[in-house]
C-alpha cells in the first residue's frame, strides 16, 4: 500500500512539474531563480538540464545544451555570466523580469572578477505554448537559436 501511495504522489508531482508554462513575468522569474540556484551547484547538473527542458522548446534546449556543454563558452540564458555560490543571493535579489511588447526583459546584477557590479540584460521570447523559444543579446542582436 505504501508503494502505491508513493507512486501516486510521484506521478502527481511529475505531472505538475511537466506542465510548467511561462504565462507571466512572475513565472519567468521563478524559472530564472531556480536556474541560478542549480547553475551554482555542480551536483545539480541534472536538475538544471531538466529545468531547461521543461521550460524551453526542444530547439532552444538543443542550442542551449550545445553552447553550455558542448562548446562551453556561452550561456544564452545569462549572456555567459555564471553565478557563484557567494553571489547567488545578490543575483536573486537584483533579478528583474518585465513584459515588453513581444518578449520579456530579464536583467540581473552580479559581481565581476574585479569586484565591480555588472548588469546583464537578456531578451527572452516565449512561444504560445509558454516555452522559452529564443533569447536575444541586446548589445548586438545575437539570437539563440538562429532566426525568430
Automatic annotation (TrEMBL):
<keyword id="KW-0732">Signal</keyword>
<feature type="signal peptide">
    <location>
        <begin position="1"/>
        <end position="21"/>
    </location>
</feature>
<protein>
    <recommendedName>
        <fullName>DUF3828 domain-containing protein</fullName>
    </recommendedName>
</protein>
